[in-house]
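User: Can you help me understand a structure? I only have the sequence.
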Amino acid sequence: MDHHHITLTRRSAGLPPLDAIDGSLRDTGIAPRIVTALLPFVTLLAFAGAWRMHWYWLLPLILLAEFVVAVSYVHDVAHGSVGLNARQTHWVMFIIGATMLQSAHAFRHTHLHHHSHCLEEDDLEGAPARMGIGRVLLAGPGYLPGLWWKAVRETGSRRERRWMVAELVSAITVAGMALSLVKWSAGPLAYCVMMYLGGWLYPLMTAYLPHYKPGARPLDQARTMRGAILPALFMNLPYHLEHHLYPQVPCMNLGRLARQLDPLLAARGLRLPSAENKPQRGEALPDFSARSMDASVSSAAVRHGPPSATAFSAAARASFKRPSSISVAARLLKAGPLSGRNTLARWNASAAASRSPAAYEVLPSPSSSPVFAGQRCTASA
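Assistant: Let's start by predicting it. Here is the structure, written out as tokens:
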């Protein structure tokens, strides 16, 4: 099978919905939202200050920071994960796009298409992942213009097309104004030239590296990273696999999401960068797809005897301290070999007794569809 036509979604990977992991990952506080919205303008002012102080050696680093914070924020805005309404979204994308001499509306069109048709033949944004490094670098100058033209031709919304055209006009206007100001200061023109040249790295940074050497499984279509320094420096953008699986999670929460997904990804055979996340020999990790629910539970730990009702209820109650489907399933698996249906029956009884809202959003029903759909468990006799 051609892996370029493999869908990369949490459903195709057999992963649970976000609410079964941690629904709070969608949320960000008001203060972080304001800070991330202002960062692109802070770096813009930093560029002007460095130019004024003749710290020219610092300009590339500042421009890289501008690229990271602006792309990260526009990326979240395009996915609707920063709490803006439709009108606010249009204007924020227009303004941030103008600072980068790009069309954020065209980016949203091609990026959402990239998510729904990841690495397929018509996925122009992901096309560099199928190229060699030489072709990727040569594709730089025409990459963003090609995405803009594709979006303008394909969008079925006249309003979206008008925004895209307006963003092109704004980029040309900003460049023209920078050129006219050269006799007073070459700083604005230097910014425009460096921003345009920096755009040549888009296919390398946003497609080739995040999707380097896609494999034959859904989880092999994108890459991820672990650690504390690089993800923080790049606003969590290196968590690319996690973003494809749960695009509704804002960038600032992708690190938390990655840590909670580690056991599920390791259980599906994904080699994670951190050795501490690899499954230990003889240890079974939970699989939340309904097809493998019975098998994963019944073969979890043959060395232990069947648990008592008291021990099982204690494990369930302990898991409520952290209402996560991962922690609940891990505790239940350690309890002993049970059939999938028996596990759910005992779990339902414990959940009903606890009266905890989190208890009703964890395990799927074995009679549900092949893909975990996030049904709430209810108490049964």
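Now, to help you interpret it: Residues 316 and 328 are 7 Å apart (CA to CA). Confidence is low (pLDDT under 50) at residues 275-381. Let me know which part you'd like to focus on.
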